[in-house]
Design brief:
Helices cover about 50% and strands about 10% of the residues. The chain is an alpha+beta fold. Strands 3-4-5-2-1-8-9 form a seven-stranded mixed β-sheet. Belongs to the tRNA nucleotidyltransferase/poly(A) polymerase family.
């Protein structure tokens, strides 16, 4: 028996049968015996069990034979007889039962063409199947055969790599990454999620094979980026993507932020490393994936807007507006959703400096009303982003900014309670303006509506119907319009 005693987050291998106590494993074992198949639990389920990462809900079963046949037979034995989803091209089948998702596949060996990550598949042994796995920690398998039920099969010392927190390929890393370049992204993702380090030879191989990432679909890359961003410390992953130079292929908008320029003794901060600090900061306060994306992209407009002036030094005028436009292009290029999620990220990038400006000065009611009006239901997300944007190492400045943000938050609450500006709709609508002045659709209606909105935001009139109607009548009179009596 193998023991792991150095770190308490790993269980001892004597207890590995506990991993497969769920009745589903006994059922798969019995069904495999009836079909004269040897079957194994493999991959992430075993890894996460050994790392005590909760009870995994995704289960991968590899069998020496037909995974599809085994899946169908198991489904027939389950009380609810769940539907079997068959993927013939991949030789896999999936069953969803209770809260488990079980994928069955026949053991196989793979070979690859240079221009595709889709393998040429042949039937193989368990050893062949373990050889094709991406990392040693994902090649761990537990037997479901009656004679050695629960026995751990670990041909690449994956247990030691778990103990030493290492990401390492079972075979030559150059072949592993060249065959399926998505594995390079997965290496970075696992290192980020698990707080492991990528073995040096493997890390070098990723850099050597970085250009192979071009054959991977944007959707697959983004899926890995999502998982990196949702990790406890996303900067770990982005530092690795930079070190391996994958980031230059995936998100040049970020790598363009790298570096510090100095002219006449005046320097600007490195906006790339600042961005990673902001992403880590915000990750301590929210699991909202799209808000984390906003943190990652909030400064991308600084590269194209950077200018130096002798009187003012370095400026990035309009970087929020430029950055919000870049968000659309980036989402489109990476085939990310161009829906409300993209619009949310755009809005956060566009407004990202507004609360910071308020926090540096005395926040007037008018400025706060406009902020709440523009941010709408996302005002709290915007404040979370802006507080994460405070990365100064000066403790006095850090304290001052946070105290000022608390003042802004208090003012937002007060203004919202008094003026009801969030998701503001003018108390007087266009239809009433038309009826009041006997107007057909015309520019005057827009002028009056805009004037009412501005008067409310500036605090000239309260956000109430009677005050807005009276203001409408006066504005109409100034425009030479005659109201109905």
């Amino acid at each position: 028996m193998i023991k792991i005693s150095e770190k308490n987050y790993l269980v001892t291998i004597e207890n590995h049968k506990q991993a497969i106590e769920h009745p589903i494993f006994e059922l798969i074992s019995q069904t495999s015996e009836e079909l004269k198949l040897n079957s194994y639990v493999i991959g992430g389920f075993v890894r996460d069990y050994l790392l005590k990462r909760g009870t995994p809900k995704d289960i991968d079963i590899v069998t020496i034979g037909s995974g599809i046949e085994l899946a169908r037979a198991v489904a027939q034995k389950l009380p609810k007889k769940p539907q079997v989803s068959v993927f013939k091209n991949f030789g896999t089948a999936m069953i969803k039962t209770d809260d488990l998702e079980i994928e069955f596949v026949g053991a196989r060996k793979e070979s690859y063409n240079e221009d595709s990550r889709k393998p040429i598949v042949e039937n193989g042994s368990l050893e062949d199947d373990q050889n094709r796995r991406d990392f040693t920690i994902n090649a761990l398998a537990l037997s479901l055969s009656k004679e050695n039920f629960g026995e751990l099969l670990d041909p690449f010392n994956g247990i030691d790599d778990l103990k030493n927190q290492i990401i390492k390929t079972p075979l030559d890393p150059d072949i592993t990454y060249s065959d399926d370049p998505l594995r390079m992204m997965r290496a970075v993702r696992f290192a980020t999620q698990l707080n492991f380090h990528i073995e040096s030879e493997s890390l070098d191989a990723i850099q050597r094979n970085k250009d192979r990432i071009k054959i991977i679909s944007k959707e697959r890359i983004v899926d890995e980026l999502h998982k990196i961003l949702l990790s406890p410390t996303p900067s770990v992953g982005f530092k690795l993507l930079l070190k391996t130079e994958l980031l230059y292929y995936i998100m040049p908008e970020l790598t363009n932020l790298l570096g510090i320029e100095e002219i006449e003794g005046q320097r600007h901060k490195d906006n790339f490393w600042h961005t990673l600090e902001v992403v880590d900061n915000i990750s301590e306060h929210t699991d909202n994936l799209w808000l984390r994306w906003a943190a990652l992209l909030h400064d991308i407009g600084k590269a194209p807007t950077k200018k130096f002036g002798k009187k003012v030094g370095w400026t990035f005028h309009g970087h929020e507006f430029v950055g919000s436009k870049m968000v659309y292009k980036l989402f489109k290029r990476l085939r990310m959703p161009l829906n409300d999620k993209m619009k949310f990220v755009q809005k956060m990038v566009l407004l990202s400096s507004r609360p910071i400006v308020l926090a540096q000065d005395i926040a007037t009611d008018s400025a706060v009303r406009r902020l709440v009006f523009d941010a709408g239901d996302h005002i709290e997300d915007l404040m979370t982003l802006c507080e994460a944007d405070i990365t100064t190492k000066n403790p006095k400045k850090f304290k001052k900014y946070h105290n000022n943000f608390q003042i802004v938050r208090t003012k937002i609450t007060e203004v919202e309670e008094r003026d009801h500006i969030r998701n503001f709709q003018p108390p007087v609508d266009g239809q009433e303006i038309m009826e009041t002045f006997n107007l057909k659709p015309s520019k005057e209606i827009g002028i009056i509506k805009e004037a009412i909105k501005e008067a409310i935001l500036e605090g000239e009139i309260p956000n109430e119907y009677e005050a807005a109607r009276e203001f409408m009548l006066k504005k109409g009179e100034k425009l030479g319009l005659k109201a109905n009596t």
